[in-house]
Design goal:
Elements: E1 9-14, H1 19-28, E2 34-39, H2 53-72, E3 77-81, E4 85-87, H3 92-99, E5 104-108, E6 116-124, H4 127-136, H5 147-157, E7 165-167, E8 172-174, H6 175-181, E9 191-193, E10 200-202, E11 205-207, H7 209-236, H8 238-256, H9 263-284, H10 292-301, H11 311-332, H12 344-364, H13 367-382, H14 386-405, H15 409-412
Parallel strand pairs: 1-2, 1-3, 5-7, 8-9
Antiparallel strand pairs: 3-6, 4-9, 5-6, 10-11
């Protein structure tokens, strides 16, 4: 495959409304590109919101800008990237492979299919690509679903020009991949395009596109960090993980029997397991008890749950509050030497926690990290969905907040 020998140029544009987003974009670039970000002033009406008058005005100027850059970089390959993108890894090699023998390579709009997202476009500067952008200028953006992107898809899908084009791989991820087909960010993600941010009402408050993009940036960073940590934990505990999984399977069999478990049962079982972990840790680091709600709140923020309505989870917690408190009391009362009426499986699990937690925690002093890693292994073993993990973490956060408020901190540890 022929390589692109010149230092590749990356072009983008931004307005006053998007200055904070621009900082994320430029600060995350990993490749050694020649970066050119053009300031376009104010977008005008709409505060940077999708489908506002200012939005359509800027899309028009963007196409004019690209026509200018194609002429200035004739026969070279350039990249155009929307400013609402953050980078996670180098991607020049993937780009060179995708553009080889083609005029265009685009980010996919969906997880499958051939609709393109023009927010990340690799462009070979020649007569054919120049003609495409001149043709796009003939469209009325305001009557199209996604302005210039709809125009580009119409041109490509209807074969209105003879350009040769292709799609970039799935590592070039966009929120629209999830919105259309529930495709979560891959572990080897290279870019995240924060699209799908049409303004919406949340609890009666209007949230604009810029705020939604910033929230999306943070959510995806948290999610990717959590996935990398889970991969690291799994690799570090490869041998122990197998033993842990086998023992936990046996405990799960004793607890559940042969009955098929629904989501609610799985969450309840996971709650028992996590609370037992917390109990063991608190035997060695009592002060960690007060930080338990904050720790699990952080775990909640690392989940990938866009457009998730958490209000129903709060209602469910209130309905189950008494039961969850009783579970904590059951776990608190466990004495391995005098099990009493405690179920055998819970005794076995507490003993396993005691054994698996002590060595890594005492050796490293990282009790908080050990708790998080063991929790990850539990959730991975039980194959909990992102939603189930959110419910679980919410229940733990609120239950331990309530314990702290009611003065049960000392007795629990």
């Amino acid at each position: 495959m022929a390589q692109i020998n010149k230092r590749m140029k990356l072009f983008s544009i931004y307005t006053d409304e998007l200055s904070e987003i621009k900082d994320v974009f430029s600060g995350s670039i990993r490749d050694d590109w020649d970066v050119h970000i053009k300031y376009m002033g104010r977008a005008g009406d709409g505060n940077g919101d999708f489908a506002s008058k200012g939005f359509y005005y800027i899309q028009q100027r963007k196409i004019e800008f690209l026509i200018e850059k194609i002429k200035e970089n004739w026969d070279d390959v350039i990249i155009y990237a929307d400013i609402d993108i953050q980078f996670f890894d180098k991607c020049s090699g993937l780009i060179e492979h995708a553009i080889y023998g083609k005029d265009f390579a685009f980010q996919p709009e969906h997880g499958s299919g051939n609709e393109v997202n023009v927010g990340f476009s690799v462009i070979r500067c020649n007569e054919k690509t120049l003609a495409v952008y001149k043709l796009i200028l003939q469209y009325d953006f305001e009557i199209l679903p996604i302005a210039d992107q709809s125009a580009m898809n119409d041109i490509l899908q209807e074969n209105k020009t003879d350009v040769i084009w292709g799609l970039l791989p799935k590592q070039f991820w966009a929120m629209s991949h999830y919105m259309s087909e529930l495709f979560a960010p891959p572990n080897d993600i290279v870019i995240h395009h924060a699209n799908g941010t049409r303004p919406r009402l949340v609890n009666g408050e209007r949230i604009g596109s810029v705020q939604l993009k910033m929230e999306q940036f943070q959510m995806i960073r948290n999610y990717i960090d959590a996935q990398k940590e889970l991969e690291l934990v799994t690799a570090m505990l490869q041998t122990k993980n197998s033993v842990f999984s086998d023992l936990l399977s046996a405990i799960e069999g004793k607890a559940m029997g042969n009955e098929a478990s629904d989501e609610e049962t799985q969450i309840t079982f996971a709650f028992y397991l996590h609370v037992s972990l917390i109990k063991i840790i608190n035997l060695f680091v009592p002060e960690l008890f007060g930080n338990t709600p904050l720790l699990y709140d952080g775990m909640m923020r690392a989940l990938f749950l866009p457009f998730f309505d958490s209000e129903e989870v709060g209602i469910s917690y209130l309905q189950n509050k008494e039961m969850l408190s009783e579970i904590c009391q059951d776990v608190q009362s466990i004495e391995l030497e005098q099990p009493g009426d405690i179920p055998a499986w819970l005794i076995s699990w507490t003993a396993l926690c005691n054994e698996m937690l002590l060595e890594p925690a005492i050796n490293t002093g990282d009790y908080r990290g050990t708790l998080k890693r063991m929790g990850c292994l539990i959730n991975q073993h039980l194959k909990l969905s992102e939603r189930s993990k959110y419910v679980l973490f919410y229940f733990i956060r609120e239950t331990f907040s309530e314990l702290a408020r009611s003065g049960q901190e000392a007795s629990y540890s």
